[in-house]
DNA sequence: CTTCTTGCGTGCGCTAGCGCACAGAGACGG
DNA sequence: CCGTCTCTGTGCGCTAGCGCACGCAAGAAG
């Protein structure tokens, strides 16, 4: 990040009415999110909501025995902390930084008040929440029916969509935690992809060489979630943004 | 159903302010939900929202190859059709009746207008939606990490909580569809439970004999979802309902 | 340049769950 | 009472993924 991040780089913030943006701007706090930082733990009352700029945050469920599984992933298309306006104030999951970067944050209470004052803003947030819901549902299905190979492809694509460039900084161990599988399983799957010339990696750095191939090898889950997310967030009838094709 | 169902048997309808109840009552339509009825298909625009009384409805994702997986389950604690007020108007899943019974339904537009007029009502619906979110997340985790035996226990408990009595009408084949596993897998798991004296079944009728044991044999997922659902929906500070222990 | 740490590769035995095939047994209509 | 359909039980070979153990090599630290 050589240039200063601005709030409008987060799609949700950018989509707010100008008037609301003005009022929120002064309260937004730019926060660096280093890899592995925990934004909140399972059951924590949410003090802030976070709007990622170039960071990626995973919602992770950690079981009693320590095993984990990623529930959903959030980049600059969304926000962390939907429980603030959904009313629960907490969720039984952990929010952890999966790719370092920056985010703007806002006090939960302030955000909640603002959301409740502006129905347009509320409805935007609710559409985002529905996109999140879709992602969770699809994760459930994917966990049930698809191979590690397919899931790795899906996961790489989800991350890629939320990054600029085609390189991820991410060890296989961490990917395994996210997918809820063995590290060796990821090694094997990644090895296959490398042999096929789809990716190239070494010691925590993954280059995606052939995104197209990746999409072919992925299960349907990626496309379903992407399509639905685009429908919910980026198709705004009779506005200039209409038809914007992708997450980023 | 020898007695006439009344709207207040649905927890969400019962929790609405008296004034709103009055206005909705005349528009509520009592509908019988036979086993297997599809309330909506993946991608359908939602014409109605449904409030189950004694029926159970599953949200099911059906993949391209026909395989399926249950995303969440809804009984008289909730409603079918959250996409109406979340703004998406549709979801990529099927709503199918898993246990026959009755539900009240309401035109989606009417419900939406009502929700948008009453913030108290909206907030109740959002809390329910968060409970749904939790259930989906937990389903994802459960699909990843737990055995068919454990998942069957969880599934039986979820159904039991939404029924009166301790008998389910449900073939192993259908349970397998819900869990997204083989029918034989369910046969085996159910056989174990029967040997342990936890359940008793024959040709689509399952009697639960020892609910306690069922909870012990289930994975943590059931308890997590139940606790969170109770927290979100039934704990209303400084009101008579406070401390109500269970879903039903 | 050495040493240590971190990330990746690999092999091996094991189990859960799959796909398939078929058999028996309750329910039910004629 | 008989044929038919639906539901459940069982057996068998197969594979994906697990747990474990160990080796190796690229960077970082000294």
Q: What's the gyration radius of chain A in Å?
A: 18 Å
- What is the third-level CATH name, the topology of the largest domain in chain A? Jelly Rolls
Number of domains of chain A: 2
Cα-to-Cα separation, first versus last residue of chain A? 17 Å
The oligomeric state is: homodimer
Structural class of chain A: alpha+beta
- Biggest interface, CB < 8 A: A-B, 42 and 42 residues
CATH superfamily of the largest domain in chain A: Jelly Rolls
How would you sum up the global shape of chain A? globular
Indicate the proportion of strand residues of chain A: 15-25%
Number of DSSP helices of chain A? 10
Q: For the residues shown, what is the average pLDDT of chain A?
A: 92
Number of strands of chain A: 10
Estimated helix fraction of chain A: 40-55%
The biggest beta sheet of chain A reads: 4 strands, antiparallel
CATH architecture of the largest domain in chain A: Sandwich
Keywords (chains A, B): DNA-binding, Transcription, Transcription regulation
Domain Cyclic nucleotide-binding (chains A, B): 12-99
Pfam family, one (chains A, B): HTH_Crp_2
Domain HTH crp-type (chains A, B): 146-212
Topology record:
Two copies of one chain form a homodimer.
Chain A: H1 11-14, H2 18-25, E1 29-33, E2 38-40, E3 48-52, E4 56-62, E5 68-74, H3 83-86, E6 94-99, E7 101-107, H4 108-117, H5 119-145, H6 148-161, E8 167-169, H7 172-179, H8 183-195, E9 199-202, E10 205-208, H9 211-217, H10 220-233
Helix pairs in contact in A: 4-5, 5-10, 6-9, 7-8
The structure holds a DNA duplex (30 and 30 nucleotides).
């Amino acid at each position: 990040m050589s240039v200063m991040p601005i709030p409008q780089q987060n799609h949700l913030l950018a989509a707010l009415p100008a008037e609301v943006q003005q009022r929120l701007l002064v309260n937004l706090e730019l926060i660096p999110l280093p890899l592995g930082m925990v934004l909140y733990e399972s059951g924590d009352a949410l003090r802030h909501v976070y709007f990622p700029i170039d960071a990626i945050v995973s919602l992770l469920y950690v079981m009693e025995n320590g095993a984990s599984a990623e529930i959903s992933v959030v980049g600059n298309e969304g926000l962390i902390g939907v429980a603030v306006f959904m009313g629960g104030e907490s969720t039984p999951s952990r929010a952890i930084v999966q790719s370092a970067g920056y985010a703007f944050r806002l006090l939960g209470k302030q955000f909640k008040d603002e959301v409740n004052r502006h129905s347009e803003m509320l409805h935007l947030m609710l559409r985002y929440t529905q996109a999140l819901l879709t992602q969770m549902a699809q994760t459930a299905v994917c966990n049930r029916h698809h191979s590690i190979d397919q899931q790795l492809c899906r996961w790489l694509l989800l991350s890629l969509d939320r990054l600029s460039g085609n390189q991820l900084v991410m060890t296989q161990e961490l990917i395994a935690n996210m997918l809820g599988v063995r590290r060796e399983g990821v090694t094997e799957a990644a090895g296959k992809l490398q042999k096929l010339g789809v990716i190239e990696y070494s010691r925590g750095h993954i280059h995606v060489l052939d995104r197209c191939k990746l999409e072919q090898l992925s299960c349907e889950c990626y496309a379903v979630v992407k399509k639905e997310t685009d429908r919910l967030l980026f198709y705004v009838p009779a506005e200039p943004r209409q038809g914007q094709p992708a997450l980023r």
